[in-house]
Design goal:
Blueprint (H helix, E strand, L loop, with lengths): L12 H21 L3 H21 L32 H20 L3 H8 L9 H14 L1 H6 L30 E2 L4 E2 L3 H8 L7 H10 L11 E2 L11 E8 L2 H10 L8 H19 L12 E3 L1 H14 L2 H16 L6 E11 L10 E4 L3 E4 H15 L11 E5 L10 E5 L3 E2 L6 E2 L5 E8 L2 E8 L10 E2 L3 E3 L2 H6 L14 E3 L7 H6 L2 H14 L4 H9 L4 H4 L4 H34 L7 H38 L9 E3 L2 H10 L4 H9 L5 H13 L8 H17 L9 H12 L5 E3 L5 E2 L3 E3 L1 H4 L1 H6 L5 E3 L2 E2 L3 H7 L9 H9 L26 H12 L20 E2 L2 H7 L6 H9 L11
Parallel strand pairs: 1-11, 2-8, 3-13, 12-15, 16-17
Antiparallel strand pairs: 4-6, 5-6, 7-14, 8-10, 9-10, 13-14, 18-19, 19-24, 20-23, 21-22
Helix pairs in contact: 1-2, 1-3, 3-5, 10-11, 11-12, 13-20, 16-19, 16-31, 17-19, 19-20, 20-28, 21-24, 24-25, 28-29
The protein binds S-adenosylmethionine.
């Protein structure tokens, strides 16, 4: 579900390292003691406890995900469009798996531990053999779920076996059985016409040829084409499918069961996995069918009666192997009282109820719900966040999904949000699986895009219907709380993926800082027209009339510039991700398959690419709405930034009311005698650069003169002329200033937030009543959102921009250096350290705000901005050396005691 402003947090390498260490310790200890199954069990248990403790402070790991699928949308920021991904650390999973797999081979392939040990031949654990590498590769391809799962789940290697990599938290919060109002078509919540337009299909004229070219592989199309399907009725609820309570097992339990299977049964490991996935989970869900979800449903359900039922059926069918497996598990349950052989409740799910099951590529049901235009959905999320403030409880269940137009549609990409929380059909009950039997995809049916659930393989009677949510969150807490109970062999441990950090942000940070973004915005505002090249680049990214129609030219031009950055990032990111992953891995392991790593990094970078386009689409929808509300026609929205002419710059700095010099003289007045001040005033007037032929040069000369005048005045701790002189110096070297044009602020109509939207605990706190939230958009909202186009969790991006601009984009107020209060404070220090800090920001981190809690103060919403750092970005030149040199070498004229 789209939830609020979840901060981008680091996953804590330390914690991950701890988990990795635990894994490796376990692997080594098990290698040592593989001869004694009992000992192994004990080790498993102790390790499990260790890991559990570690997991309390660290996120679980996961592997990256498929591309090209629909996903449930958990977070409203940084959502990958076509799949989700891991941020690096998953890499060590694979090595751990390899070690454990090796260990398992030893313990399982041979009945004799002596043989096991001698077959190892004293090799060190880091020694590499052909079979090691193969197994490693197999595992990795398995991790690349999109391709490998799509082709029939053929990736299972007999030797691969996952040992309780993740486990359910004891405090797992149960899902609340929500009731929904049944609908049989999409219900549009706002902007009906606009949303209809976004949902309607427009096939390109050459659709048939393109489709052929794609099918024959003669043309590699970058954009997915609409998938046209004929109308098919959905499977009937209560007949072909049923809604019922479903239970599942976590990866730990999956592996516990594997470990409990007797070794003498000559079943390949794959069969053992299949026994759990197909037989055990099916039988389990048949047994729990009678629970109604109305109070009589236990949170856990024992595995014992499930295995007993399977055993009885096997006896009837004379299925000796299944009988043996069941008896082995039953013996283990009996002899290992400390191990928890339980399944956990997932809430209501959907189960195939058709004798004979469903065939492959069969239509199951549309994912119906209320359809929100993106702006409205994010307004609602802002409201939810506001109401949930400080709530530490796990997030409520989520039922929303993005309906994205395929980029290959003639009118291009765009999106709307389908929320099935309140009004829905049974598709909203379908649970997630890391190895699903269905997929959710956008299809074109009768000229309208819809999200359809389609089978990806045959499904048997009694089997639970699942799809991969491919959902992401930016919250570590949410991620950890979402323990996946799909029970599959390839379970990632969480049904959410953690996003938004590490290597994935590297290119953005390096090439697309605040000033870079302002640069793009300034150029777009200056030109206020769309070039042919702009249209071409936008079109190549799949952005067309659907998303861009009706927007002012400067916004379209800015979007084209963003797309160019997104393309640049797409080329640079795979290397960055690869470097990061290799760096992480090399800390622990010697054998790394570069080719596999490279292809992993490419898949991950592709996910980021799609996510960026998605964020751009959401941003454009938000600003279009605001512009529409203010100007009627969004096209009328004027560019928010305008460069000052030299005359205007003179007014800003030298002679206007409220100019820099005007403020300076006012701030100085309490500290100077009237004659000196008047003298200075008349000198300033005499140096007005307005009439000069080269106003800019003359203005700089006047400012530098003023700097020296001010420096020569006597300082006190409250009256820091020396610091004011430094600031005048910096202004003197700033060439371009820009005016910010504010739009009118306005308040949007209310959005309704129900207790269900807030999650159980939060809803209680608010008295279980529905709430209304009305968002107020400030005058600089559009500019703020466009500058922070890649983040959607910012309720007030205008304030974020103002905060982020302090120092780097807007210089401090001159009044900062003249104390208005008597009190001496720590923050009035302006010594060599402060100057060094300032210079460091200017030179090394020009796109970062200046440090907080210093002598500097800044306007909260500056009307004009400009800085030497912005000049450097605009001119693609280094910071003015002369300016820096003077600041570094001018003699100190005053030093307060505390400055030192
Ligand atoms: C879209 S809903 C699915 C229907 C839901 N169980 C119900 O009762 O309405 C998503 C929620 O179901 C539960 N769920 C779905 N798949 C799960 C899984 N693989 N493991 C654990 N819980 C799951 C989680 O509580 C999740 O927030």
């Amino acid at each position: 579900m789209c939830r609020d402003a979840i901060k981008v947090k680091n996953r804590g390498a330390g914690d991950m390292n701890h988990i990795t260490t635990l894994f490796l310790q376990l692997a080594s200890r098990l290698e040592e003691s593989s001869k004694f199954s009992y000992e192994r069990d004990e080790l498993m248990k102790s390790w499990k406890d260790d890991l559990s403790a570690a997991l309390d402070s660290a996120p679980m790991k996961h592997k990256k995900k498929a591309t090209g699928k629909k996903y449930m949308n958990r977070s409203n920021g940084n959502i990958p469009a076509n799949g989700s991904f891991d941020y690096g650390e998953y890499a060590s999973d694979q090595e751990i798996k390899k070690r454990i797999s090796k260990l398992n081979r030893k313990s399982m392939d041979s009945g004799s531990e002596t043989d096991d040990r001698s077959s190892e031949g004293g090799r060190s654990s880091s020694d590499s053999t052909a079979s090691d590498t193969e197994s490693d590769l197999d595992f990795r391809s398995e991790g690349r779920t999109g391709e490998s799962r799509g082709d029939g789940y053929s990736m299972t290697d007999e030797d691969e076996r996952e040992w309780g990599a993740r486990m359910t938290k004891v405090s797992l919060v149960p899902p609340v059985t929500r009731k929904y109002e049944v609908i049989d078509q999409y219900l549009i919540v706002a902007d009906e016409e606009d949303v209809q337009r976004k949902m309607s299909v427009s096939l390109p004229d050459d659709y048939a040829e393109k489709l052929d070219a794609q099918k024959n592989g003669t043309e590699e199309l970058d954009m997915e084409l609409p998938e046209v399907k004929g109308y098919k009725p959905r499977k009937q609820l209560g007949d072909e499918v049923i809604e019922q309570e479903v239970y599942g097992i976590d990866p730990y339990t999956h592996n516990l069961l594997l470990d409990s299977m007797p070794e003498e049964v000559d079943w390949p490991l794959l069969k053992k996995h299949m026994f759990i996935e197909d037989v055990l989970l099916c039988t389990l869900n048949k047994q729990v069918r009678h629970f109604t979800g109305a109070g009589n449903t236990p949170m856990t359900y024992p595995i014992l009666p499930v295995v007993e039922e399977i055993e009885q059926a096997a006896v009837k069918d004379c299925d000796i192997r299944t009988m043996k497996i069941c008896r082995g598990i039953l013996r283990a349950i009996d002899s290992r009282p400390d191990d928890k052989y339980v399944s956990y409740r997932k809430g209501l799910g959907v189960v195939c109820n058709k004798e004979g099951g469903f065939r492959d590529d069969d239509f199951v049901v549309e994912f119906l719900g209320e359809v929100y235009p993106a702006w409205k959905w994010f307004e609602k999320q802002d409201g939810i966040r506001l109401l949930q403030k400080d709530s530490k409880e796990p997030a409520p269940e989520f039922y929303n999904i993005y309906l994205e137009r395929p980029k290959g549609d003639a009118d291009g990409y765009d999106l709307v949000v389908v929320d099935a929380m309140h009004k829905a059909n049974y598709a909203s009950r379908i649970c997630h699986s890391c190895k699903p039997n269905c997929e959710a995809k956008v299809t074109a049916v009768d000229g309208q895009y819809q999200i359809g659930i389609y089978t990806v393989r045959e499904i048997q009677h009694g089997e639970e219907i699942t799809f991969d949510y491919n959902s992401v969150t930016e919250s570590k807490e949410e991620y950890e709380a979402s323990v996946c109970l799909c029970g599959s062999q390839v379970c990632r441990g969480s049904y959410l993926n953690l996003t938004g950090e590490g290597a994935f942000q590297k290119v953005l940070k390096e090439w697309h800082g605040l000033l870079d973004r302002y640069y793009l915005m300034l150029r777009a505002c200056e030109l206020n027209s769309v070039s042919e090249e702009d249209y071409l680049d936008l079109g190549r990214a799949g952005l067309g009339s659907c998303l861009l129609g009706g927007l002012p030219d400067w916004v379209v031009s800015y979007s084209a510039r963003l797309v160019r950055f997104i393309n640049l990032e797409r080329t640079k990111l795979p290397e960055e991700i690869l470097r990061h992953n290799l760096e992480e891995k090399r800390k622990y392991f010697a054998d790394i398959c570069l080719e596999v790593e490279r292809s992993d990094a490419e898949v991950q970078a592709e996910g980021v690419y799609n996510q960026r386009l998605q964020n751009l689409a959401v941003t454009l929808d938000k600003v279009r709405y605001v512009m529409r509300c203010i100007f009627g026609d969004p096209k009328q929205a004027p560019p928010p930034l305008e460069k000052l002419t030299p005359e205007e710059t003179v007014s800003l700095l030298w002679k206007g009311d409220g100019s820099l010099v005007d403020e300076l003289l006012q701030c100085m007045s309490p500290y100077m005698d009237a004659d000196t001040l008047n003298d200075l005033r008349s000198k300033v007037r005499a140096r007005d650069p307005s009439d000069s032929d080269d106003i800019q040069k003359a203005l700089q000369k006047s400012l530098l003169w003023l700097r020296d005048e001010v420096r020569s005045l006597p300082c006190t701790y409250k009256c820091r002329h020396d610091a004011a002189a430094d600031l005048i110096h910096v202004y003197a070297y700033t060439k371009s200033f820009f005016r910010v044009r504010e739009y009118d602020a306005f308040t949007s109509p209310p959005v309704h937030i129900s207790p269900l939207d807030l999650g159980p605990k939060c809803a209680d706190k608010l008295g279980g009543l529905p709430h209304k939230y009305q968002k107020t958009y400030g005058g600089n909202y559009c500019m703020g959102q466009l500058i922070f186009w890649h983040i959607q969790t910012n309720t007030e991006p205008d304030f974020t921009v103002a905060k982020a601009s302090k120092g780097c984009l807007s210089l401090p107020e001159i009044g900062s250096f003249y104390a208005k209060v008597q009190k001496l404070s720590q923050q009035r220090i302006y010594g060599p350290k402060t100057v060094k800090m300032m210079l460091e920001r200017m030179e090394k981190y020009p796109q970062k705000p200046w440090p907080k809690d210093q002598i500097w103060s800044f306007k909260n919403s500056p009307k004009v901005f400009g800085s030497p750092m912005l000049d450097a970005v605009l001119n693609k030149a280094p910071l003015d050396r002369e300016m820096v040199h003077w600041l570094k070498h001018r003699p100190t004229v005053y030093q307060a005691m505390w400055d030192r």
